[in-house]
Protein 1
Amino acid sequence: MLELSAQTGLGGLELDIELAVPAGRCLALAGPSGAGKTSALRVAAGLLRPERGHAACGGRVWLDTVAGVDLAPEERRCGYVFQDYALFGHLSTWRNVAFALDGPRAERRRRALALLERFGLAGRAGAPPRELSGGERQRVALARALARRPAALLLDEPLSALDARTRAAASRELGAVLAEAEVPALLVTHDFAEAALLGDEVGVIDAGRVVQRGSASELAAAPASAFVADFTGAAVLTGTAGEPENGLTPVALDGGGEVATTDAGRGPVAVTVFPWEVELAPAGSHPAGSARNRLAAEVLSVTAVGNRVRVGLATPQPFAAELTEPAARELGLAPGRRVEAVFKATATRLVRL
Amino acid sequence: MGPGTWFAALLCLSLAAVLIFLGLPVAAIFLDTSPTELIASLGQPEARDALMLSLRTTAASLALIVLVGTPAAYLLATRSFRGKAVVVTLVELPLVLPPAVAGIALLASVGPTGLLGSLTGDSLALQTAGVVVALTFVASPFYIRQAQAAFAALDRSWLDAARTLGASEAGAFVRVAVPAALPGLAAGTALALGRALGEFGATLIFAGSFQGVTQTVPLAIYARFATDFDAALALAAVLVLISAALLLAVKLVGRSSTLAGA
């Protein structure tokens, strides 16, 4: 169990977090850059001393500002994977891993090579880090972090330095390592999808605070705030909720238009809906169907995202829909084209503002 | 003639002018002495004493500079504190100080009648130890500046990584910072070496020019050039050779350390 709490000012940002990660589990802290994610890791590792804070792992107290306990980073046994991996450029790959090991040289070399072997890097042991690919560097950093048999794993954006193609494979491998690890793992990322993939649980962090915590699907399905909804990838429309009628709440949108939602709420609210729940129809058409909500919209952008197409819309509030590529072609979507965005009232979530 | 050709010619001419201006005097030292003369004048005890003294004092002062200057430069590069700009300026001051002023300043501080005269007495002024003090005073800023820049250019996450991998603060310094900054430290050593080996003014004023005690090669050249120009020339030739050899060695150290990981 890794327990961490910290309250400290960080030049314009007030970090205030409290979290616990059981052994064998991975908590992914996701949030935009500047939210204090890396600072949280640094507090855990002993690289940043908070004004007030407490950290303990496996029954051992690492930090207690009240009792005056503050173990040095080397005494905490954290396996820390840095954002750019921080491999020592003046040491070969195996020496990077052996850096973390104690004992006679031959023994350290043998154990470093065994670890590299496990990560499929035995053939790269003598190479300097600058000759490794991004994916190889990431695995060396991981092998090095595990070399000391850490009491906790701390990972700072472990996939962000990789190109899109390498990332998929690296994330599968990292997932396997995390699943195998018997220690608590704390991972931070700016990418919600990455957090959902690698974390057993996701905490969304904004402006130094964890604003919501839960499984990735819980967060996506029931975001506690517009920020979480936006961060999980949902489109957000703001407006004012009116008197419910037949179990439906009407929301008058800022800037014009009205939508209905099955969620209850009054006053200023945000309506969230996932882009893949939104259908597009030619303007003025009247297709039959159960969808309650129809919003006149103008296409702003059409972007391919993998095998899908994300369509940016102005309703006039910014909005988004995701379609398959053939569907987008059939509709002749291009910036400036007028369409109707159609979605069911049951696909929306209401968040009080 | 194309529009770019005259400019390329101008660049080449400028470089040629620089090479002739810098190279001709150095070449003249060797063209003006025959090898036999050179060896003969080195047989003189004055010349041998001066050479040995220069090598001993330069080595001693470089050892001092590297031993004390490296951690000091590391502190300046990795910590911020109130008044740091003032400290850095103080460290760099000897760079712009005329050597004669440095000599006077040393006399006024650690000379027999200086500020700390009651502590140092006659142990430094006009003694070999005084030469080492003078060389260290004028040469150390060259090393510390370069070392500070080399440490500041290090990726700070390497030092953090070293800590999380079990190294103490001192361990991160010895096992990561110094080896990773070695090319910069070597360059700084080369600069300090050149400055120390050629030191003249501060040494003359603070330590004097006594054969075998404080008369380094530059002082010996000065003492000889009016009366025995050939002997002065021979000493100069040796100084050029030693400086070039040491510069080359230091550059090779820097080069090989950057390739160590390969």
Protein 2
Amino acid sequence: MNTFKIFLCLLCIGVNASAQQKPVAFKGALIYPINGAPIQNGILVVQNGIILSVGNDEKAIPANAEVILVNDKVIMPGLVDTHSHLGGPEGGDYSNPINPEARAMDAIDPTSDGFKKALAGGITTINVMPGSGHLMSGQTVYLKMRDGKIIEDLLITNEKGVFGGLKMANGTNSMRSGSGFPGTRAKSASLVRELFLKAQAYKKKMEKAGKDSSKMPERDLAMEPLVEVLNGKRVVHFHTHKSNDILTVIRLSKEFGFKPVLHHLSEGWKVADEIAKAGLQASIIVIDAPGGKMEAVNLTLETGAKLENAGVPVAFHTDDGITDSRLFLRAAALSVRAGMSREKALEGLTIVGAKMLDLSSKVGSLEKGKEADFIILSGDPLSIYTKVEQTWVEGSKKYDITNPADRAFLTGGYGVFSSDRGEFHHHGDEEDDAKAGN
Amino acid sequence: MKKSFLVLLISTFAPIYLLAQIAIKAEIVYPVSAAPIKDGVVLIENGKIKAVGKAAEIIIPSNYKIYESKIVTPGLIDARTLIGMSGVLNIPVDQDQLEKSSPIQPELRAIDAYNPEEALVKVAREYGITTIHTGHGIGALVSGQTMVTKTKKGNTDEVVIKPFSMLAMTIGHSVSEKFTSPGTKAKQISMIRSELLKAQVYMKKMLDKDSTKHPTFDLKMDALSKLLKGEVKALITANKAVDIMNSIRLSKEFGFKLVLDGAAEAYRLIDEIKKANAEIILHATMARNEDDMLNMTRESASILTKAGISVSIESGYEGYVPKTRIVLFEAALTAAYGLTFDEALKTITINPAKLLGVDGRIGSLEVGKDADMVLFDGDPFEYTTHVTNVLIDGVVFYDKIK
């Protein structure tokens, strides 16, 4: 291969490999690094998709850096949404209440315009989940809001070596008649216990086989993710609302030795101490009013505050389309209204969610060495008047409010969103929901 | 005997008389009908506003109970909701907003179903929503009647201020999803037109000087006659441009007063809406933009207001979680998308009061109006602000930090 061709190859690699070659310094904003106190007149330096430094020392700006002035702005880490249905993840079908083998990655459309909403809301990392109409609806995916035509372009592999979790649910949504679905809570729990017993047996067989491939049990797509759960590799994300249903999840997790992340928790405030004692993390939805189903009648804005007081790590989620990704900051603000501390509320949008996904070494705070995911806000993150002005993913600007095409995804308008209904985690009226068990 | 009777009389009425005298002192009073008043005072007596003005100009009598606040606004009005009719549990026995036996039932009265003690009425009240326009719902050609009520506790006849406000109507696929007939939109419109024609005939016969020629009194026809006579308005849920135009066409043909409910694509039909004198109740700003709402914009309130159209904002109908939206939050967001603070406040006070025909008694802080007001510890639209007190007819119904 001659020199010229080598040169061309190197050029291509150079152009494609990194978001920017020169370092970029964002100067003058109030920075919330999250892993420490807010920094006035802050300086954030990024290069090749990674954070070089965070502070307010001018000397930290490399000589060849492009300097962008962001006076009067606020910079925070890109937000982490631990529970979303953007992109149409679907999940298990209604032939079976238990579908560990079904994968959201096989359903999601990465070009879905829903992901534009996430960027407009400042969200850069998302756990996209199958729905809650099953005891176990399938494997979730952890996505970074990069550009991508194929799902593999958006996947993030975490510290444990997986790029998603496992979605489970109990309570109303996963109970219905037909096809082996449980009609009662006791049956819901026993089906799950039987499944985990099977998984434990399969795991034993795998371990016994050791390196001898002839002794390995046949591959079982349902068992494999469950073994990952039992090995602490794959996180179970468990949708649960009522206090007794939450305690059932705790009981199950103790019996089989895994630590699920608890999701929604309408009555989590009632059993905050029990959740804390079990050492579990809480991903909560912040929603304007109670009701819509029996298990949500005692839902309150105070959940975040009550869990914080009990020492439970709290993250927020949108559960898009239940709440809108563009309004994710609102979850923190309303929780502060109801008594949560500002500090923990901001952590709930960022680092705590990252920890739940085993991604905290990469995202969730503005620290040297972490991925350059950050948002530039027009003002205080907890103000209704604040807008996300820019969203940067791995050092690349993916959303800019001054770009009319981007702004249209924030406000909506004629022809802005496509009519692909598969996209939305659709909850129709109560009849549809009763039928579909969503 | 006489003495004890007197004691009884005094002890019965004395507490009411004492409670009836309240003074609200606020850093800013927003009357809505006039400019904001810095260091203002509102005096309340017997459930009505007695005075509104600068603290320096109003003497507070010594026996008045004083509440101090940062901000006070008129009680908030939800231009269209389903609370009290569509209950919090979302099970068949607590859902009274949609009768599915037939697609046109204008005779169904909201007062026969409204539950003032329903959990969500309390939720709304504690956010300062003191009056609601509630009643029959979305999904039938004519689902029934709506009413206007205060959100205070009591039985229906005590709290309602307008028992028959509008006829709730819907045009669109949500109707065909619930009924075998009508299936298509053309059928929906033709069914409405047929019934209205029948009502025109009924009305004409009822006006006959010879009373023997009068038809038998018919609840359905009577309700439709009220619409045709202009005594009540048509509240038509229509979000897509096509359905908005269908509504306008109907109102032109039959001469009824049209209120477009939802009106997600109204921003595309401003001239037509103005020409038709149609009024607008705008969908919740945070409504999910799917199905008929796909083309909605958060800037609708701003676009319509700038075009000179009065905008009232609703919480609307929710079929799942949350079982209601909170109109305070919905209006608040419009202040972040183009409306001034005062304009946004109007969308949940004087604008809906006028649209509902109850602006003689609510919607602004003016002498003689009902003492409905909300006390806030900061900008009412900010996420982190709390409602501290809610008064309805001069009675404090909510008295803590929220």
